[in-house]
Amino acid sequence: MFAVVTFFRRGMAEFRLSLLLALCTLPGAVAGALAGTRLEGVWFERTLAVVMLAVMIITSVGRKIPPARVTPFPSRRRMAAGCLLMAVVGVYGGFIQVGVGFILIPVLQRVLGMDLVRVNMHKVFIVGVYTIVALAIFSTRVQVMWLLGLALAAGTTVGGWLGAHTSVSKGERTIRIILNTVLIAFIIKLLFF
Questions:
Q1: Which of 29, 140, 150, 162 has the greatest CB tally within 10 Å of its CB?
Q2: Measured between alpha carbons, how far is 177 from 3 in angstroms, rounded to an integer?
Q3: pLDDT band at 71 (very low <50, low <70, confident <90, very high)
């Protein structure tokens, strides 16, 4: 929420588009959270590493897609594809959550044609909305470690505030460097440590 407010105060808000995309994730997030209450297995970290590697490749190669036109809404064709993919992202986010931002980035950037500053603005709103729903499902079905969750929320608050400020003031080039650095570090950690 701090990141959303920070983007808004810095003059960056496309509330209707953010809300539409967030609502598209909800059915998937419910299904993913219901399945996530049964999550077990040793392949989780390797799967996550592969997902992050794919995201890094998708966001780094290929022709640059220009940002959506003057209106905050992309073309109908892109919106239809984006909404469908948001439901898929919701399944992953509700199921695992870890690294979901890295999955949202190529959808918002490549499918909806947004620059990385707008991507970050929408990403924090979307994750905030569906996470509330997923948390409600998890809290009714499994034991939630609330104290650890609050500590994580505090760190996320600081990170969201810093990320929003950096996105608006430093622009897409800086975001790309930070994104790729974090992705490489996560991939190495997940595969080798």
A1: 29
A2: 20
A3: very low
Output the six-digit token pair for 122: 């929408």
The structure tokens listed for 111 are 């499918």
Which residues lie below 8 Å from residue 166, measured CB to CB, with a gap of 6+? Answer: 174, 175, 178
Q: Which residue is it, tokens 């590697």?
A: 53
Q: Running DSSP on this structure, what letter comes out for residue 99?
A: T
Contacts of 17 (CB under 8 A, 6+ apart): 72, 73, 122
Quote the pLDDT of residue 65: 52
The string of pLDDT tens digits covering residues 136-148 is 998 999 888 999 9
Quote the CA–CA distance of 12 and 67 in Å, as a whole number: 15
Residue linked to tokens 């997902």:
51
Task: Please state, in angstroms and rounded to a whole number, the distance separating the CA atoms of residues 69 and 37.
Answer: 41
